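Q: Joint fold for the lines below.
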Amino acid sequence: MAERNLNQADPEIAKLIDEENVREHETMRLIASENYASRAVMEATGSCLTNKYSEGYAKRRYYEGQQVIDQVEELAITRLKKLFGATAAAGGEDDLHVNVQPYSGSPANLAVYLAFLQPGDVVMGLGLPAGGHLTHGHTVSITGKYFKSIPYGVRREDHRIDMDEVRKLAKEHRPKLLWAGTTAYPRTLDFEAFRSIADEVGAILAADIAHIAGLVAAGAHPSPIGIADVVTSTTHKTFRGPRGGMIFCKKAHAAAIDKAVFPGLQGGPHNHTTAAIAVAAREALEPSFKDYAHKVVENATILAAALVYHGFSVTTGGTDNHLMLLDLTNKGIAGKPAAQALDRAGIVANYNAVPFDPRKPFDPSGLRIGTPAVTSRGMGVPEMERLAAWIERVIANIGNEAEIAAVAAEVKTLCAKFPAPGLRI
Ligand code: DSN
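A: Joint structure:
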């Protein structure tokens, strides 16, 4: 029987994929953790490599038939070493081990716990309400249930991480693991300062660069490679690869990290994802990726300034990276109805807690906005200024569906001029 394509085999799913393709083309993607993977990355993701089991690591597998897979994994590791080794603090590039098997960012972070901690040990990370990640010890996460979590926060005056507070808490609670990493924090992280605190208390320093990996690779944000003991990341945010995870560590920790990923937490690696990570690493080694990452930051800076011009309250007053956090309190609206109205206007962001938010996490005061995806479409300064004006227009017209539809039409017209990588149009 002739093989059927997706449309023939499953028209319902084919139609839904087509609809998502259109939605992604016609709307402005401002979710700070999303991006557009290239067609090359998607081809690798959709390849026959999905068929192969390969528990273990190159040349040490539990299944035969690894002639190709070993090369794929080794190529991904070699390219990532070249890319991130070049960003390392002195000597760091020679002391670099890479694991490309974590299924995504949360499993990569769990591997750090498994490699270094025992249940009940103390962990410190930026609290979720201050812009940290669930897996850095939040109460609802396994990392807050099985370990003793001491979150640090941001200063009330300027909403920046207070390194004096981090030091004070670390000295008091002696964490075994200290996280430097964020999901909703618009400023540069001082990895050297985290290192000195970790050294003072004998903690493992883990940097989670999931959001900023692409910026780090391109030199648009300082690198923790060679400073932190271990660095975890997803591969699909500013790095612009497939949905996946990766871990960098000093060679002394290689065996512990590898053992924690497999067999500690996972079975067979997703080889199609590994291949796509290798493709993304190759793309990130091209000079154009450096330009891209710097433009992401430039666009974020301009968008934040334009939003301030339109009367928005931007936490910390702006941004150093790819994202910003708006506190909508002065606009008299909460984050959720604002995000929903913007979505109807084709401007897709997410509602988010702001530091010291008096509202509940499911109905917080803020909006998180990021520029990685719109920058991948080639948008720049004029588009960021237009975007700020649209955001202001939508927020000022909540309840006026005709005005929101008018913005959606304008957004669609602009998006048509900036085809997104990887989409079929
Ligand atoms: N879900 C990611 C984000 O949006 O930041 C973090 O895991």
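Q: Anything notable?
A: The mean pLDDT is 97. The first helix runs from residue 6 to 9.
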